[in-house]
Amino acid sequence: MATQHSRSAARIMMAPAVVLLLGWMLIPLTMTLYFSFKKFLPLRGGDLGWVGFDNYVRFVSSSAFWPSVQTTLIIVGGVLLITVMLGVLLAILLDQPLWGQGIVRILVIAPFFVMPTVSALVWKNMFMDPVNGLFAHLWKFFGAQPVEWLSDAPLFSIILIVSWQWLPFATLILLTAIQSLDSEQLEASEMDGAPPLARFGFIILPHLSRAITIVVLIQTIFLLAVFAEIFVTTQGSFGTRTLTYLIFQRVLESQNVGLGSAGGVYAIILANIVAIFLMRIVGKNLDS
Amino acid sequence: MARAVTNRRKALNTLVAWSVGLLIFFPILWTILTSFKTEAQAINDPPLFLFFDWTLENYAVVQERSDYMRFLWNSVIIAGGSTVIGIIIAVPAAWSMAFVPSKRTKDILLWMLSTKMLPAVGVLYPIYLLFIELGLLDTRIGLTIVLMLINLPIIVWMLYTYFKEIPGEILEAARMDGAALKEEILYILTPMAVPGIASTLLLNIILAWNEAFWTLNLTAAKAAPLTAFIASYSSPEGLFYAKLSAASTMAIAPILILGWFSQKQLVRGLTFGAVK
Amino acid sequence: MGQITLNQITKNFGDVQVIPPLDLRIDDGEFVVFVGPSGCGKSTLLRLIAGLEDVTSGDITIDGRNATEVPPAKRGLAMVFQSYALYPHMSVRKNIAFPLRMAGLDKEAQNAKVDAAAKVLNLTDYLDRRPGQLSGGQRQRVAIGRAIVREPAAFLFDEPLSNLDAALRVNMRLEISELHQTLKTTMIYVTHDQVEAMTMADKIVVLQAGLIEQVGSPLDLYHAPRNKFVAGFIGSPKMNFLTGQYASGYDATTIGIRPEHIAVSSSEGAWSGRVGVSEHLGSDTFLYVDIDGVDEPITVRSTGEIGVRHGDNVYLTPDASKIHRFDKQDLRIP
């Protein structure tokens, strides 16, 4: 394959994709870094000069920072916990022999295809609305006081909405992984006298560990960036302001670009820490 | 070997699985049902499931009041355009990496992946500023470019994993048979890669269609796709459940249908080939 | 015409030299087999001749013309790949016609040649099928058909039979040999199976670690292997090797004796031993005999049926004229 001729042709064909992505990465990244060292208020005087690490310090020491980190961690952690646990159970369930397997699978996967703004609004209005939502009807039916979901249990509500969107992803990947398990392994362990729970613990779960790791890493990257769900439900109020949302508010709502950019650099660093682990796994997979 | 199980066991599985499946699907089902109710029926207490006066009125109203078709068209152009351009750029790149691998191929692939992981909010202002400077804010072309760039790594990766599955010997055979590079790609590679390219196309249309960060932040009235249009319902005016449902149903229907075709590819595309 | 000369060619992959400087001459019409254990460089050598890999240094001449820099398609060679490499989206007819189409032949000429090749290869009834609908043997014949229609100066086969089951492999071996008789075109054939090499070749090239160990006719290699490696590689079952006291009597470091050159007796002989496993095939009997001071059991092949079983004491006598002697460097002492 690898003759000199084909190698130079390959380099030329790779160029457009590489150059575009390089530009897409470097240009905005450089600008973010540049702004992060400036006091820059487009609506209130514009570029007010270099301020060193001032923005970085101010972003971290602002009263909104730590709550936003906490909110981010709760949302990401909550969604991961729910989607991975239910995902494993669902994957095992869907792997069992049953009638209409294909249709059930489609039903389970469907939420993944719903655009975030739609799912957030549908949940907010038609389920969680304290007067007309289905939950309110359900609560009243059992004689309970309807809950003001988005103001009384805002984090739980957002975790519920986001988990509903991501459960299909976890299920689908874990199901694919389960199906790649050699059934003879399970039969062998059955012959060796392992009861179902032991088979799950000693055979299925270890087999799934890689897929679970991948689900956790990929979801973490996407969940750190959750935006639309908060944008159309609470707008960041009631303690639902994540790091992403805080940066968004600093940059576009209060137009404090310097401060927001410093926050952006923090977000990039955070995402990269997760990304490194993911890339290791993916990279190893490339070699095999 | 599929294990033979008793019918009782299978019936139980079926019952549980269908219940869970319907529970998960219920919000979508409820949205679709509500879209055919009148606004009054939509908030009826107790809720109405199937026995109401089915009406298409909401669909007409949504179109009439807010020119729904324009947003739909924006979504089609942006999602379709970004995917097609992305594939045109990605095919040669993926081809090179799959069939003429060098020492750096792996690094390039991983680097491309890393650009996908850049948090959008970190570069929000620069992109916003560049869009203003270049006159791209609230234009379809601007959004098409951005969505193409954020999905390009996934497109390259998916195509790469598909191309990798085409045995190199077949391309060598073509070369021995006298096919030049152009003919090799035209007559051998492309026909063999069509299923892979189609899956890539499908998954990326879905991803672009549902993208809800840049579409919300870089558009106003003119170029807004459905994600942004639906977001405008977040500030309610009067009774709007039925209309929200109609708009939502129209926004998700095409993707639900495409999505059902692409279940398998979804796994491969979203895990960068790490789970097959 | 199909005369190929390799002159001092080498091949490096990165820092690793897989082919040290190598010379080889292949004459027109010869059936040459490259044989050796996996990883010996035989496939690489074939791919260098095909032009699918660049040589690092040295020259390749085809019919007197320097072909070192010539792209694969222009070398006038046709190749049959291990995986057959059929184009899955094309019918058998289109597969076979592909090289002709690339050469710019008109439709009628293409069809005439495809039909002729299909007739030779018994593929006429399958021309409209896709490769996926064919059996392994049929796919193999399509791959050969695609090579034939080009009327190449030489055919290159890269382990073409390794994906077939045992019975089919014997059939295809005969078909390829017959094809060579009919076409009288140069064929270069790569295999790790010494039986294929022995049965098909006019000339065998034994390779190990990129080096040519010996070049010769099958019987040359059988009767006069140049060294211990070739002696052990050619012939089935493998030659027995003995060292120490057994070899010193013959004035050698190691002696080798083929299983078919050892006589068995229950009463007397040169070496005494105890039978381990015995395999009774009817036509032949294979005995694995443990003798004192030798780690590996000695393999013995006797024709017909002999009444020896596990645990019996037997005496073995090698045919002195068939003993191969090797020196310290493992070279055969003539």
What would you say this structure looks like, in words?
The complex is a heterotrimer of chains A (288), B (276) and C (334). Chain A is built from 13 helices and two strands. By secondary structure, chain A is mostly helical. Chain A has a domain of 176 residues: MetI-like (MetI-like fold), CATH 1.10.3720. In chain A, strands 1-2 form a two-stranded antiparallel sheet. The mean pLDDT of chain A is 84. Chain B is mainly α and 276 residues long. The radius of gyration of chain B is 23 Å and the shape is globular. Chain B folds into two domains: 53 residues, no CATH class; 205 residues, MetI-like fold (Orthogonal Bundle). Chain C folds into two domains: 229 residues, P-loop containing nucleotide triphosphate hydrolases (Rossmann fold, 3-Layer(aba) Sandwich), CATH 3.40.50.300; 96 residues, OB fold (Dihydrolipoamide Acetyltransferase, E2P), CATH 2.40.50. The longest helix of chain C is centred in the middle third of the chain and has 18 residues. Classes of the chains: A mainly alpha (288), B mainly alpha (276), C alpha+beta (334). Chains in contact: A-B, A-C, B-C.
- Computed CA radius of gyration of chain A, to the nearest angstrom: 24 Å
Helix proportion of chain A? over 70%
**CATH superfamily placement of the domain at 65-240 in chain A:** MetI-like
Indicate the proportion of strand residues of chain B: under 5%
Q: From the alpha-carbon coordinates, what is the Rg of chain B to the nearest angstrom?
A: 23 Å
Q: The biggest beta sheet of chain A, please?
A: 2 strands, antiparallel
What number is the mean pLDDT of chain B?
Answer: 84
- Briefly note the CATH topology name of the domain at 65-240 in chain A: MetI-like fold
Order of helices and strands of chain A: HEEHHHHHHHHHHHH
Q: Name the CATH superfamily classification of the largest domain in chain B.
A: MetI-like
Summarize the largest interface: chains and residue counts.
A-B, 108 and 105 residues
State the end-to-end CA separation of chain B: 19 Å
CATH architecture assignment of the domain at 65-240 in chain A: Orthogonal Bundle
Form type of chain A: globular
Mean pLDDT of chain A: 84
Number of strands of chain A: 2
Q: Summarize this, please?
A:
The complex is a heterotrimer of chains A (288), B (276) and C (334). Chain A is mainly alpha-helical and 288 residues long.
